[in-house]
Amino acid sequence: MDKHTIEGKWMELSGAAKEKWGELTDDEIQQAEGNKEKLIGIIQQKFGLAREEVEKEFDKLKGRLDQ
Length: 67
What we know:
- By secondary structure, this protein is mostly helical.
- It is built from four helices and no strands.
- The protein has helices at about 5-20, 25-30, 35-45, 50-65.
- α1 (about 5-20) crosses α4 (about 50-65) and α3 crosses α4 (about 50-65).
């Protein structure tokens, strides 16, 4: 996968995350630096959710985007 494809996928995934967790800010997305694990940690901390729960939701979001 080339850099542009990866960046595009990140934009899709982060946009879907912002839809799912509406209070997620652009600054928090930027803090994740394109790293899914960092973004999961930010969401987990901000919303007080279990890591497994956030990962499960991310997998659902990713599955919808891959279709």
